[in-house]
Amino acid sequence: MPKATVRNMPVTGRSCLVRVDFNVPMKAGTITDDSRIKAALPTVEYLRHQGAKVVLMSHLGRPGGKVVEGLRLGPVAKRLAELLNCPVAYVDDCVGLKAKSLVLGMKPKDVVLLENLRFHPEEEKNDPSFAEQLASLGDFYVNDAFGTAHRSHASTVGIARLLPAYAGLLMEKELRALGTLLRNPERPFVAVLGGAKVSDKLSVLWKLLEKVDALLLGGGMANTFLLAEGFDVGKSLAEPAKVQEAKEILRKASALGKNLHLPRDVVVAPRPEVGVPVSVVSVQAIPGDLMVLDIGPETRKAFAEAISGSKTAFWNGPMGVFEVEPFRGGTMEMAALVASLGGFTVVGGGDSLSALKMSGLSNRISHLSTGGGASLEFLEGKTLPGVHCLKEQD
Ligand code: ADP
Ligand code: MG
Question: Which of 78, 150, 180, 259 could form a disulfide with 374 if both were Cys (CB 3.0 to 4.6 A apart)?
């Protein structure tokens, strides 16, 4: 059953407390990428258009339950006001008298941004009285922060028990796109996984193997699988503790008759730095003193063949250390491959999205998933607590 959304909510003149994901990258007080603010605009604009009072709340970074000056949401309020082309009132605490009186004075279409939720340790503990204080600021609750829906926090779960709880438009879009991958993907369906967080990503592989026609593994993640196949990976990033699980995944793939593609050749160097000597070697001959930092040209060709003609693709995790120029090629080619597919394409993960942005091809992808960990847990088939507690559609 789909979740009820803001469109099912009688909001005119009412105060809507919206959990957004404004966890934007910042450098010295400046926002370096405002994609997450832009992603929340449809819900905020919809609510304003309906004459609601819009109270926004978010976390930013990991302040660990105390006030950290560099993690205030002031710069976000400023950027949001520019994007909405209307004033955004910002209050330097998310609960308490100041927040309360600001909200009480709101008129329809006004927008307020509350301070970083994680300045209070009660947020991540899902403390009931903190959730109550937040809930006292709204008549309705809206969750538009898919990226934190896999966490049971006061602003994602506690509050949903206290107010009528709806999905925002971004949340709806995420659930629809990822739901399509799980339920009825057009075939062939290919998944490409890479990146560094092997232990986070192994569990999604079990589920994806059942769903996909082909699975391609690259990036740091593939090294653990190369170990499982008996190759030496030198000084590469790898998780020897996960080799056993990787072996079992390889066995399952062949039992299911699924095509699981691993790198055949790799780009190696002593360190992921510009200027170091770089070479391409077969996975059978990775020198013991070097690191695997990208997929090689033969692998890129094999991956291109495996992907071509797919009607559905999911990509999470770069193919190499794309941040450093000599190791960017595999990831850029993957971006071009996924972007060139005519079907339904989903790319998720913070680093994958920044790699995609670098390639200039973001607008050629059907859905950019804002939630890294949350998308993976959803694809594992887990129930996300922040989604579970939202109202079902009548
Ligand atoms: P995402 O954020 O897209 O989910 P991850 O956080 O799992 O992806 O991984 C991204 C990181 O993986 C990047 O910083 C990239 O440099 C790193 N990476 C990719 N391939 C390798 C590799 N072979 N060795 C070390 N790090 C790698
Ligand atoms: Mg990442």
Answer: 150
